[in-house]
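in:
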Protein backbone atom coordinates (compact mmCIF):
# COMPACT_ATOMS: atom_id res chain seq x y z
CA UNK A 1 0.00 0.00 0.00
CA UNK A 2 1.54 3.34 -1.00
CA UNK A 3 1.72 6.33 1.35
CA UNK A 4 -1.37 8.15 0.06
CA UNK A 5 -3.58 5.06 0.22
CA UNK A 6 -2.21 4.23 3.68
CA UNK A 7 -3.01 7.73 4.98
CA UNK A 8 -6.53 7.51 3.56
CA UNK A 9 -7.00 4.10 5.17
CA UNK A 10 -5.86 5.40 8.57
CA UNK A 11 -8.24 8.37 8.45
CA UNK A 12 -11.15 6.14 7.39
CA UNK A 13 -10.40 3.69 10.20
CA UNK A 14 -10.29 6.44 12.83
CA UNK A 15 -13.51 7.99 11.55
CA UNK A 16 -15.23 4.61 11.48
CA UNK A 17 -14.03 3.21 14.80
CA UNK A 18 -13.73 6.35 16.88
CA UNK A 19 -10.65 5.14 18.75
CA UNK A 20 -7.86 2.84 17.67
CA UNK A 21 -4.32 1.88 18.62
CA UNK A 22 -1.05 2.05 16.71
CA UNK A 23 -0.86 -1.74 16.69
CA UNK A 24 -4.40 -2.08 15.32
CA UNK A 25 -3.77 0.49 12.60
CA UNK A 26 -0.46 -1.15 11.69
CA UNK A 27 -2.20 -4.50 11.28
CA UNK A 28 -5.00 -2.93 9.23
CA UNK A 29 -2.75 -1.14 6.73
CA UNK A 30 -0.01 -3.77 6.70
CA UNK A 31 2.79 -1.54 7.99
CA UNK A 32 5.12 -1.34 10.99
CA UNK A 33 4.44 0.63 14.18
CA UNK A 34 7.20 3.07 13.22
CA UNK A 35 5.64 3.67 9.79
CA UNK A 36 2.20 4.30 11.28
CA UNK A 37 3.68 6.72 13.81
CA UNK A 38 5.26 8.65 10.92
CA UNK A 39 1.91 8.55 9.11
CA UNK A 40 0.10 10.00 12.15
CA UNK A 41 2.66 12.82 12.32
CA UNK A 42 2.24 13.54 8.61
CA UNK A 43 -1.56 13.58 8.93
CA UNK A 44 -1.32 16.08 11.78
CA UNK A 45 0.91 18.27 9.60
CA UNK A 46 -1.82 18.17 6.93
CA UNK A 47 -4.35 19.55 9.40
CA UNK A 48 -5.98 16.49 10.96
CA UNK A 49 -6.47 16.75 14.74
CA UNK A 50 -5.56 13.34 16.17
CA UNK A 51 -5.57 12.98 19.97
CA UNK A 52 -3.36 10.46 21.77
CA UNK A 53 -4.49 8.96 25.09
CA UNK A 54 -1.86 7.00 26.96
CA UNK A 55 -2.48 4.24 29.44
CA UNK A 56 -4.73 1.23 29.46
CA UNK A 57 -7.80 1.69 27.31
CA UNK A 58 -6.24 4.65 25.54
CA UNK A 59 -5.31 5.05 21.92
CA UNK A 60 -5.70 7.42 19.00
CA UNK A 61 -8.83 9.44 18.35
CA UNK A 62 -9.63 11.68 15.39
CA UNK A 63 -11.50 14.88 16.14
CA UNK A 64 -14.87 14.39 14.35
CA UNK A 65 -14.70 17.98 13.06
CA UNK A 66 -11.17 17.53 11.80
CA UNK A 67 -10.52 18.02 8.10
CA UNK A 68 -7.49 18.18 5.87
CA UNK A 69 -6.46 21.81 5.45
CA UNK A 70 -5.03 21.36 1.95
CA UNK A 71 -6.47 19.32 -0.88
CA UNK A 72 -3.52 17.30 -2.18
CA UNK A 73 -5.06 15.50 -5.08
CA UNK A 74 -2.64 14.20 -7.66
CA UNK A 75 -3.13 14.68 -11.40
CA UNK A 76 -4.05 10.98 -11.88
CA UNK A 77 -6.68 11.27 -9.12
CA UNK A 78 -8.30 14.33 -10.72
CA UNK A 79 -8.00 12.71 -14.15
CA UNK A 80 -9.67 9.56 -12.80
CA UNK A 81 -12.56 11.65 -11.46
CA UNK A 82 -12.96 13.52 -14.75
CA UNK A 83 -12.93 10.45 -16.94
CA UNK A 84 -15.30 8.62 -14.61
CA UNK A 85 -17.83 11.44 -14.88
CA UNK A 86 -17.28 11.77 -18.65
CA UNK A 87 -17.68 8.03 -19.16
CA UNK A 88 -20.90 7.88 -17.17
CA UNK A 89 -22.25 10.89 -19.06
CA UNK A 90 -21.38 9.28 -22.40
CA UNK A 91 -23.26 6.17 -21.31
CA UNK A 92 -26.26 8.32 -20.45
CA UNK A 93 -26.49 7.27 -16.80
CA UNK A 94 -25.07 10.18 -14.81
CA UNK A 95 -27.57 11.54 -12.27
CA UNK A 96 -26.85 14.87 -10.55
CA UNK A 97 -24.47 15.82 -13.37
CA UNK A 98 -24.60 19.54 -12.50
CA UNK A 99 -23.46 18.84 -8.93
CA UNK A 100 -20.68 16.59 -10.24
CA UNK A 101 -19.48 19.31 -12.62
CA UNK A 102 -19.54 21.93 -9.86
CA UNK A 103 -17.51 19.70 -7.56
CA UNK A 104 -14.95 18.96 -10.26
CA UNK A 105 -14.62 22.67 -11.06
CA UNK A 106 -13.69 23.38 -7.41
CA UNK A 107 -11.09 20.62 -7.49
CA UNK A 108 -9.62 21.92 -10.74
CA UNK A 109 -9.33 25.47 -9.36
CA UNK A 110 -7.36 24.14 -6.39
CA UNK A 111 -4.67 22.62 -8.62
CA UNK A 112 -1.32 24.43 -9.03
CA UNK A 113 -0.60 25.85 -12.50
CA UNK A 114 1.88 23.12 -13.41
CA UNK A 115 -0.64 20.44 -12.47
CA UNK A 116 -3.32 22.10 -14.60
CA UNK A 117 -0.92 21.92 -17.55
CA UNK A 118 -0.39 18.21 -16.90
CA UNK A 119 -4.15 17.67 -16.62
CA UNK A 120 -4.74 19.36 -19.97
CA UNK A 121 -2.15 17.09 -21.57
CA UNK A 122 -3.89 14.11 -20.02
CA UNK A 123 -7.29 15.19 -21.34
CA UNK A 124 -5.87 15.66 -24.83
CA UNK A 125 -5.06 11.95 -24.93
CA UNK A 126 -8.52 10.87 -23.78
CA UNK A 127 -11.04 9.51 -26.29
CA UNK A 128 -14.48 8.10 -25.51
CA UNK A 129 -16.68 6.11 -27.87
CA UNK A 130 -19.36 3.45 -28.00
CA UNK A 131 -18.63 -0.24 -27.61
CA UNK A 132 -19.92 -2.64 -30.23
CA UNK A 133 -22.91 -4.67 -28.93
CA UNK A 134 -21.15 -7.74 -30.34
CA UNK A 135 -18.18 -7.35 -27.99
CA UNK A 136 -17.65 -10.34 -25.70
CA UNK A 137 -17.28 -9.19 -22.09
CA UNK A 138 -17.26 -12.62 -20.46
CA UNK A 139 -13.52 -12.46 -19.71
CA UNK A 140 -13.48 -8.88 -18.42
CA UNK A 141 -11.47 -8.45 -15.20
CA UNK A 142 -10.24 -5.68 -12.90
CA UNK A 143 -7.53 -3.30 -14.03
CA UNK A 144 -4.15 -3.15 -12.29
CA UNK A 145 -4.38 -0.13 -9.88
CA UNK A 146 -0.77 0.78 -10.71
CA UNK A 147 -1.59 1.36 -14.37
CA UNK A 148 -2.92 4.93 -14.21
CA UNK A 149 -0.01 6.36 -12.11
CA UNK A 150 2.48 4.61 -14.41
CA UNK A 151 0.62 5.95 -17.45
CA UNK A 152 0.91 9.48 -16.00
CA UNK A 153 4.68 9.18 -15.60
CA UNK A 154 5.16 7.61 -19.02
CA UNK A 155 2.74 9.86 -20.93
CA UNK A 156 3.80 13.20 -19.45
CA UNK A 157 7.51 12.31 -19.51
CA UNK A 158 7.21 10.70 -22.97
CA UNK A 159 8.72 7.46 -21.71
CA UNK A 160 7.99 4.02 -23.09
CA UNK A 161 5.77 1.83 -20.94
CA UNK A 162 6.58 -1.84 -20.39
CA UNK A 163 4.00 -4.39 -19.28
CA UNK A 164 2.92 -8.00 -19.44
CA UNK A 165 -0.01 -8.54 -21.77
CA UNK A 166 -2.43 -11.45 -22.05
CA UNK A 167 -4.39 -11.46 -25.31
CA UNK A 168 -7.85 -12.89 -26.00
CA UNK A 169 -6.38 -16.34 -26.65
CA UNK A 170 -4.49 -16.38 -23.36
CA UNK A 171 -1.07 -15.79 -24.93
CA UNK A 172 1.25 -13.77 -22.69
CA UNK A 173 3.88 -11.36 -24.05
CA UNK A 174 6.15 -8.62 -22.71
CA UNK A 175 5.42 -5.34 -24.51
CA UNK A 176 7.35 -2.06 -24.82
CA UNK A 177 5.16 0.66 -26.38
CA UNK A 178 4.74 4.42 -26.64
CA UNK A 179 1.62 5.42 -24.63
CA UNK A 180 -0.07 7.75 -27.13
CA UNK A 181 -3.70 7.81 -25.97
CA UNK A 182 -6.39 6.28 -23.81
CA UNK A 183 -9.58 4.98 -25.40
CA UNK A 184 -12.69 4.28 -23.33
CA UNK A 185 -15.52 2.24 -24.82
CA UNK A 186 -17.58 1.66 -21.66
CA UNK A 187 -17.07 -0.62 -19.87
CA UNK A 188 -13.76 -1.42 -21.61
CA UNK A 189 -10.65 0.76 -21.35
CA UNK A 190 -7.79 0.61 -23.83
CA UNK A 191 -4.22 1.86 -23.84
CA UNK A 192 -3.46 3.04 -27.38
CA UNK A 193 0.25 2.61 -27.99
CA UNK A 194 2.66 2.84 -30.88
CA UNK A 195 4.39 -0.52 -31.14
CA UNK A 196 7.90 -0.06 -32.63
CA UNK A 197 8.15 -3.80 -33.27
CA UNK A 198 5.24 -3.63 -35.73
CA UNK A 199 5.62 0.06 -36.66
CA UNK A 200 1.91 0.60 -36.04
CA UNK A 201 -0.67 1.49 -33.40
CA UNK A 202 -1.96 -1.24 -31.14
CA UNK A 203 -4.93 -1.25 -28.74
CA UNK A 204 -4.31 -3.00 -25.43
CA UNK A 205 -7.23 -3.77 -23.14
CA UNK A 206 -6.23 -2.33 -19.81
CA UNK A 207 -7.76 -5.18 -17.82
CA UNK A 208 -5.31 -7.52 -19.61
CA UNK A 209 -2.25 -5.47 -18.64
CA UNK A 210 -0.17 -6.38 -15.58
CA UNK A 211 3.12 -5.27 -14.02
CA UNK A 212 3.26 -1.88 -15.81
CA UNK A 213 6.38 0.27 -15.51
CA UNK A 214 7.75 3.41 -17.16
CA UNK A 215 11.12 3.03 -18.87
CA UNK A 216 13.07 6.13 -17.89
CA UNK A 217 15.79 5.85 -20.54
CA UNK A 218 13.43 5.35 -23.51
CA UNK A 219 11.73 8.46 -24.95
CA UNK A 220 9.24 8.98 -27.78
CA UNK A 221 7.50 11.75 -29.74
CA UNK A 222 3.79 12.52 -29.88
CA UNK A 223 1.95 10.97 -32.82
CA UNK A 224 -1.45 11.64 -34.36
CA UNK A 225 -3.75 8.81 -33.33
CA UNK A 226 -6.03 7.90 -36.27
CA UNK A 227 -9.28 7.16 -34.47
CA UNK A 228 -12.38 6.30 -36.47
CA UNK A 229 -15.02 9.00 -36.97
CA UNK A 230 -17.22 7.60 -34.21
CA UNK A 231 -14.38 7.61 -31.69
CA UNK A 232 -13.39 11.20 -31.05
CA UNK A 233 -12.32 13.32 -28.05
CA UNK A 234 -15.24 13.76 -25.69
CA UNK A 235 -16.84 17.07 -26.62
CA UNK A 236 -17.66 18.23 -23.10
CA UNK A 237 -14.04 17.82 -22.02
CA UNK A 238 -13.02 19.95 -24.98
CA UNK A 239 -15.57 22.51 -23.85
CA UNK A 240 -13.81 22.73 -20.48
CA UNK A 241 -10.65 23.83 -22.26
CA UNK A 242 -12.47 26.35 -24.46
CA UNK A 243 -14.27 27.96 -21.51
CA UNK A 244 -11.10 28.19 -19.46
CA UNK A 245 -12.16 25.83 -16.69
CA UNK A 246 -9.06 23.75 -17.46
Amino acid sequence: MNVRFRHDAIVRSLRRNGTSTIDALAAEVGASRRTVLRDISALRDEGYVIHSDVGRGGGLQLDPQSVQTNARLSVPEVFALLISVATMRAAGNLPFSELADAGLAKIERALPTDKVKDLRAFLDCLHIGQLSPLQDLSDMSKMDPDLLPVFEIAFLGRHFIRFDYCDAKGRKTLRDVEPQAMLILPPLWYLVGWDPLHADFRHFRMDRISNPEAIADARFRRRHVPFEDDVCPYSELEALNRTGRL
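note: Residues 75-242 form one domain.
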